[in-house]
Amino acid sequence: MKASSGDALAHLVEALRRLPGVGVKSAQRMAYHLLQHDQPAASQLARALDAAVQKVQHCERCHTFTEQPVCATCLDPQRDPHQLCVVETPADQAAVERTGSYRGLYFVLMGKLSPLDGVGAHDIGLPALIERAFDEVVQEVIVATNFTAEGEVTAHVIAEALKSRGLRVTRLARGVPIGSELEYVDLGTIAHAFSERR
Amino acid sequence: MKASSGDALAHLVEALRRLPGVGVKSAQRMAYHLLQHDQPAASQLARALDAAVQKVQHCERCHTFTEQPVCATCLDPQRDPHQLCVVETPADQAAVERTGSYRGLYFVLMGKLSPLDGVGAHDIGLPALIERAFDEVVQEVIVATNFTAEGEVTAHVIAEALKSRGLRVTRLARGVPIGSELEYVDLGTIAHAFSERR
Ligand SMILES: [Zn+2]
Ligand SMILES: [Zn+2]
Q1: How far does A45 lie from chain B, in Å, by closest CA?
Q2: Cross-referenced HAMAP family, in alphabetical order (chains A, B) (predicted)?
């Protein structure tokens, strides 16, 4: 029996296709490029994937990615512990950080409510957020979920859960264009929305 | 000294950015997706990258990717050894194969002439192609490089090198794609189809 001549390449294309936003043509181009022009990049990526899977975990306090039990931001004594900003993803957190207009702490949902996809309150850590927000130090929760349909529903559910227990909850001002994701919004708009939060 | 909390994640984003067509935002989204929702895919990709780098090499006869010294197509006794089709990439070879209209052999350049990027005749294996084409069995070389500026230059150089040594060299016909409406075909193609009418 003749051995198949293209298994390793076919498996690589297949594995690359599991990356979000990568179709079969892109996966082929990536595989060809790595093997033909940049084998060091292929090996570097393999090592980086293994290291990330092994080391990266979720912060016990804010749920963002970290290699320690508690992330550097949560441990930073310079941050204002009276404010807690709720974002969907670490990318959104990074976008808020880049504005330089917020010095409080974070809670990262690592997703958004999406009943149709089976993503419920527990999946976004709502019970943990409630416990976190009522640590007797937090005075204001700023909900900075995206201004998409699912982000708004998530914001509403979070606001209801916290307000009903007596906490001050604000939402970023609607200076952020409706329908857009924070990650792709210019910094000035995000900074403005922070100062206009209500 | 406090250890950096995001090294593994930052390294992963950096490694993903080396994939063609992947910017920093896409790389972040890919990294977050893998770590949050699909760690098996991350490990699978790491294994596939290592296996491909270790196993995939170039066919001695046609230069395409293979795990054997000579690829399955070159070894296939059903193929017509009198015809040799020259393509830029394995993806182009796969496209020709899918047409089902060609039963000869191939030579894969694994690139195209691009003097501005420092890609010369040796980089696309022109000396090897000349040796391959003059094996006394090949009767016709069909140049199927892409119909781009660089693909045309590559075709021209290959054709000159082989014709001057007395071999029959043909080029895929250019013209209006079958099934397309003139209104939507670019003007250069229409103009060319006019001058090449027969
Ligand atoms: Zn944290
Ligand atoms: Zn071959």
Answers
A1: 5
A2: RecR (MF_00017)
Instruction: Show residues of chain B in contact with A47, CB under 8 Å.
Output: 15, 46
Give the right CATH number for B65-171 from 3.40.1360.10, 3.90.79.10, 3.50.50.60, 1.50.10.10. 3.40.1360.10
Q: What is the CATH number of domain B8-55?
A: 1.10.8.420
Q: How large a percentage of chain B has pLDDT more than 70? A: 96
Burial of B5 (0-12, 13-18, 19+ CB in 10 A): buried
Q: B147-175 pLDDT, tens per residue?
A: 889 999 999 999 999 998 889 999 888 78
Cα B103 to ligand 2 centroid, rounded to whole Å: 14
CA angle B78, B84, B86 (to 5 degrees): 130
Question: Measured between alpha carbons, how far is residue B52 from residues A39, A75, B94 in Å?
Answer: 9, 42, 19
B28 at interface of A, judged by CB pairs closer than 8 A: yes
Which among B8, B32, B46 has the least Cβ separation from residue A67?
B8
* Average of per-residue pLDDT across B114-134: 94
Asked if A97 and A85 touch (Cβ cutoff 8 Å), the reply is: no
Tokens of A90: 């670490």
Q: Does pLDDT of A3 surpass 50?
A: no
Burial of B110 (0-12, 13-18, 19+ CB in 10 A): buried
Chain A residues inside the 8 Å CB shell of B53: 34-35, 39, 42-43, 46
Question: Tokens standing for A74?
Answer: 């949560």
* Tens-digit pLDDT profile for residues A41-93: 999 999 999 999 999 999 999 999 999 999 999 999 999 999 999 999 998 99
